[in-house]
Amino acid sequence: MAKVMDLKEESFPGAIKLAEAMQNVNIIRDIAEDLSAGKVYLPQDELEGFGLPDKLDKEDVEKNPEEYCRFIRFQLD
Questions:
Q1: First and final CA of the chain: distance in angstroms?
Q2: Of the residues 16, 65, 69, 77, which has the fewest C-beta atoms closer than 10 A?
Q3: How far is CA 57 from CA 22, 50, 66, 69, in A?
Q4: Is 22 exposed, middle or buried (0-12, 13-18, 19+ CB in 10 A)?
Protein backbone atom coordinates (compact mmCIF):
# COMPACT_ATOMS: atom_id res chain seq x y z
CA MET A 1 0.00 0.00 0.00
CA ALA A 2 2.89 2.36 0.76
CA LYS A 3 4.13 1.91 -2.81
CA VAL A 4 0.66 2.49 -4.24
CA MET A 5 0.41 5.68 -2.20
CA ASP A 6 3.86 6.66 -3.50
CA LEU A 7 5.26 7.09 0.01
CA LYS A 8 8.95 7.50 0.62
CA GLU A 9 10.86 4.25 1.04
CA GLU A 10 11.86 5.13 4.60
CA SER A 11 8.17 4.86 5.54
CA PHE A 12 8.00 1.20 4.48
CA PRO A 13 9.10 -0.34 7.83
CA GLY A 14 6.41 1.64 9.65
CA ALA A 15 3.84 0.72 7.01
CA ILE A 16 4.72 -2.95 7.45
CA LYS A 17 4.29 -2.73 11.23
CA LEU A 18 0.94 -0.98 10.78
CA ALA A 19 -0.23 -3.66 8.34
CA GLU A 20 0.78 -6.40 10.78
CA ALA A 21 -1.06 -4.69 13.62
CA MET A 22 -4.19 -4.26 11.52
CA GLN A 23 -4.11 -7.92 10.48
CA ASN A 24 -3.75 -9.02 14.13
CA VAL A 25 -6.73 -6.88 15.10
CA ASN A 26 -8.80 -8.42 12.29
CA ILE A 27 -7.84 -11.96 13.29
CA ILE A 28 -8.59 -11.38 16.98
CA ARG A 29 -11.83 -9.54 16.23
CA ASP A 30 -13.09 -12.44 14.10
CA ILE A 31 -12.22 -15.29 16.49
CA ALA A 32 -15.63 -15.31 18.22
CA GLU A 33 -17.49 -15.16 14.91
CA ASP A 34 -15.32 -17.93 13.47
CA LEU A 35 -15.91 -20.10 16.54
CA SER A 36 -19.67 -19.57 16.21
CA ALA A 37 -19.40 -20.83 12.64
CA GLY A 38 -17.36 -23.85 13.76
CA LYS A 39 -14.16 -22.51 12.18
CA VAL A 40 -10.75 -22.39 13.84
CA TYR A 41 -7.92 -20.71 11.95
CA LEU A 42 -5.48 -20.79 14.85
CA PRO A 43 -2.42 -23.11 14.92
CA GLN A 44 -3.73 -26.32 16.41
CA ASP A 45 -0.40 -27.54 17.76
CA GLU A 46 0.06 -24.21 19.55
CA LEU A 47 -3.46 -24.36 20.98
CA GLU A 48 -2.60 -27.75 22.45
CA GLY A 49 0.65 -26.31 23.82
CA PHE A 50 -1.43 -23.92 25.92
CA GLY A 51 -3.72 -26.70 27.15
CA LEU A 52 -6.50 -25.74 24.75
CA PRO A 53 -8.20 -28.28 22.48
CA ASP A 54 -7.36 -28.20 18.78
CA LYS A 55 -11.07 -27.95 18.00
CA LEU A 56 -11.53 -24.83 20.13
CA ASP A 57 -15.07 -23.64 20.75
CA LYS A 58 -16.67 -20.84 22.74
CA GLU A 59 -17.15 -23.01 25.84
CA ASP A 60 -13.45 -23.91 25.85
CA VAL A 61 -12.54 -20.23 25.81
CA GLU A 62 -14.97 -19.49 28.64
CA LYS A 63 -13.64 -22.41 30.72
CA ASN A 64 -9.98 -21.47 30.19
CA PRO A 65 -9.81 -17.67 29.86
CA GLU A 66 -6.28 -17.35 31.28
CA GLU A 67 -4.82 -19.99 28.96
CA TYR A 68 -6.66 -18.47 26.04
CA CYS A 69 -5.32 -14.98 26.83
CA ARG A 70 -1.78 -16.37 27.13
CA PHE A 71 -2.23 -18.13 23.80
CA ILE A 72 -3.41 -14.90 22.08
CA ARG A 73 -0.50 -12.94 23.58
CA PHE A 74 1.88 -15.60 22.30
CA GLN A 75 0.37 -15.27 18.83
CA LEU A 76 0.82 -11.50 18.90
CA ASP A 77 4.44 -11.84 19.96
A1: 24
A2: 77
A3: 24, 15, 15, 14
A4: exposed
**CA-based torsion, 18, 21, 40, 43: positive or negative:** positive
Integer Cα distance of 27 and 38 in angstroms: 15
Number of C-beta neighbours around residue 48 at 10 A: 11
Sign of CA dihedral 29, 34, 35, 36: positive
Residuewise pLDDT in 10s, the chain (77 residues): 888 999 999 999 999 999 999 998 888 888 888 888 888 888 888 988 988 887 777 788 888 889 989 998 998 88
Question: What's the pLDDT score for residue 8?
Answer: 94
